[in-house]
């Protein structure tokens, strides 16, 4: 273990509306472990690979789908299509298998597997055509199958998104929290809801663990169809920049699109911040949405509001900017939540609560309320629903084992988010902050030094550790983080510890905690595995933190008894 100890220093289209016919409100139970799917009832059939599918689909003639693609109908017997998937393992009888080009393999390499599972046709490009045709299935050949896959899926499933009130959230930080808060507001308004995002997808009260922030287009349209089939009327959904650039939301037109903020992230995917912004801005085109809700406190949000959005926008400001349509006032930040007043464009005064700590969650809560108002919900009803959400998995999630200090897990995994969480907790911390953080492997390397510096500058104890190193050497990642920490002037930084093993790092932070301190574990949040050299082993920060706290309490109790004896 490496330790750096400082001087004491300074440690101190028409307006969308909520549609009728929804069911009764349900119960939102996001904490403590909402990212667990409900187990199947005893005797239920085994789960089928892939995303949920609707029980009833009107068969679509393959010739009609070829016509939609602008290509001749394949020769041979007429085929009826009842589904589509890009995953050869998830093919069901009646599917079109979308064989996409990949970095290492072409999807056409797996066309025989798809045929064996009952596929009735293959959608692919010229590179995959010969391999697909070798299966004997009809082949739909287009220049870019990914570019047409979303619209084709929407057609096959009967355009289910058109039957849902869709609210999409994009931005760098806060997408998950805002989506949960919007869903809570929708439920409070009487809607039967759906949720799609980083942690999970929800169909009413059923929960399905997510593989990515925004599902692939084939899975997304199937999920919409299941939601509609089960009576869901409204859905809150995270929309990533990858989803916009890779066509995952093709076939969707959101009733309300929300922009939270933008800061450096995914620079291994985007060529720079402008490219990143332009990807996000695609959500605010007429092809993607009908109305926008935009954060005026963010410089990129101001660009959207100033004319770079193709759709009408409503603005909000948690900082109280007078030019915003909706703004926060009288903000009172507490250790676990915040209360504030929302001022509206027609003199509205709405009492509101952000159910999670920190100024950034005031912004998330305000975004949620304004999005709900844009969808036609009464402002006070929206605010009450948002304020009643009991928490969001892995977002400032408390771990309470009876200890005399606060223990918290948060998903913050980029510099701005790490700084925001630490500054928010510093305002309510009566003691010291002991924080644990790692950086992911095979991802943006430029943020590692700044994240190490942020932790060293803003925490009293900065424990640098592994996140998901993936194929990279964990020590090489830590060296980059340590370089950033070492650049913080000695009088401005806390004690810096280096522990490669994440469980040991969490235990080290807990061991330093006294009454009124805060232990903060950052980076993985709701995640339940750690990817090391291609092997994902079970690892849940919440469980590991709880175990470390309980072990420390047991040691303290044993020591006390020995002293008394």
UniProtKB/TrEMBL annotation:
Binding site for meso-2,6-diaminopimelate: 443, 467-470, 523, 527
Pfam families according to UniProt: Mur_ligase, Mur_ligase_C, Mur_ligase_M
Main location: cytoplasm
Cofactor(s) listed: Mg(2+)
Residue numbers binding ATP: 171-177
Catalytic activity: UDP-N-acetyl-alpha-D-muramoyl-L-alanyl-D-glutamate + meso-2,6-diaminopimelate + ATP = UDP-N-acetyl-alpha-D-muramoyl-L-alanyl-gamma-D-glutamyl-meso-2,6-diaminopimelate + ADP + phosphate + H(+)
Binding site for UDP-N-acetyl-alpha-D-muramoyl-L-alanyl-D-glutamate: 88, 213-214, 240, 248
Residue ranges of every copy of the Mur ligase N-terminal catalytic domain listed in the record: 81-155
In-chain residues carrying the UniProt-annotated modification N6-carboxylysine: 280
GO terms for cellular component: cytoplasm
Catalytic activity, EC: 6.3.2.13
Basic and acidic residues: bias regions: 9-18
Pathway linked to the protein: Cell wall biogenesis; peptidoglycan biosynthesis
Family: Belongs to the MurCDEF family. MurE subfamily.
Protein name: UDP-N-acetylmuramoyl-L-alanyl-D-glutamate--2,6-diaminopimelate ligase
Organism field: Streptomyces klenkii
Lineage of the species this protein comes from: Bacteria, Bacillati, Actinomycetota, Actinomycetes, Kitasatosporales
Name of encoding gene: murE
């Amino acid at each position: 273990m490496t330790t750096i100890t400082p001087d004491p220093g300074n440690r101190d289209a028409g307006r969308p509306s909520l549609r009728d016919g929804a069911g009764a409100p349900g119960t939102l139970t996001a904490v403590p472990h909402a990212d667990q799917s409900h187990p199947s009832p005893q005797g239920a059939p085994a789960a089928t690979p892939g995303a949920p599918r609707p029980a009833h689909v009107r068969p679509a003639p393959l010739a009609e789908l070829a016509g939609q693609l602008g290509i001749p109908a394949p020769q041979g017997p007429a085929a009826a299509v009842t589904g589509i998937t890009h995953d050869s393992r998830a093919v069901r009888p009646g599917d079109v298998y979308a064989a996409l080009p990949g970095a290492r393999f072409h999807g056409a390499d797996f066309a025989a597997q798809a045929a064996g599972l009952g596929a009735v046709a293959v959608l692919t490009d010229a590179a995959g055509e010969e391999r697909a045709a070798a299966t004997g299935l009809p082949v739909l050949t287009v220049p870019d199958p990914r570019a047409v896959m979303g619209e084709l899926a929407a057609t096959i499933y009967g355009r289910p998104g058109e039957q849902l009130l869709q609210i999409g959230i994009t931005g760098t930080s806060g997408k998950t929290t805002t989506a949960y808060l919007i869903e809570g507001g929708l439920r409070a308004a009487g809607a039967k809801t759906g949720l799609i995002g980083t942690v999970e997808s929800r169909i009413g009260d059923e929960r399905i663990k997510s593989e990515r922030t925004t599902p692939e287009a084939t899975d997304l349209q199937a999920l919409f169809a299941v939601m509609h089939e089960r009576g869901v009327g409204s859905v809150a959904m995270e929309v990533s920049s990858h989803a916009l650039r890779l066509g995952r939301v093709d076939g969707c037109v959101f009733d309300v699109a929300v922009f939270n903020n933008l800061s450096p992230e995914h620079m291994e995917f985007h060529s720079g911040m402008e490219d990143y912004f332009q990807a996000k801005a695609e959500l605010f085109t007429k092809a993607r949405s009908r109305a926008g809700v935009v954060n005026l406190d963010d410089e990129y949000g101001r660009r959207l509001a100033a004319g770079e959005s193709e759709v009408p926008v409503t603005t909000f400001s948690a900082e109280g900017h007078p030019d915003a349509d909706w703004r926060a006032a009288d903000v009172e930040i507490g250790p676990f939540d915040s209360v504030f007043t929302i001022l509206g464009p027609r003199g509205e005064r709405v009492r509101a609560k952000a159910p999670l700590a920190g100024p950034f969650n005031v912004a998330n809560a305000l975004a949620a309320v304004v999005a709900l108002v844009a969808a036609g919900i009464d402002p006070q009803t929206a605010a009450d629903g948002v304020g009643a959400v009991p928490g969001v998995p892995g977002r400032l999630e408390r771990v309470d084992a009876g200890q005399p200090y606060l223990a918290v897990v948060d998903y913050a995994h980029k510099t701005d988010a790490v700084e925001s969480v630490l500054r928010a907790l510093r305002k309510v911390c009566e003691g010291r902050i002991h924080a644990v953080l790692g950086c992911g492997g095979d991802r943006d390397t430029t943020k590692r030094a700044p994240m190490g510096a942020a932790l060293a500058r803003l925490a009293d104890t900065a424990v640098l550790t592994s996140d998901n190193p993936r194929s990279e050497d964990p020590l090489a990642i830590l060296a980059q983080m340590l370089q950033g920490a070492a650049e913080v002037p000695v009088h401005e930084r806390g004690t810096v510890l280096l522990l490669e093993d994440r469980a040991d790092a969490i235990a080290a932070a807990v061991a330093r905690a006294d009454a009124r301190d805060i232990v903060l574990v950052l980076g993985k949040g709701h995640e339940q595995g750690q990817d090391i050299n291609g092997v994902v082993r079970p690892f849940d920060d919440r469980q590991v933190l709880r175990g470390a706290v309980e072990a420390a309490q047991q040691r303290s109790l044993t020591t006390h008894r020995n002293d008394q004896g």
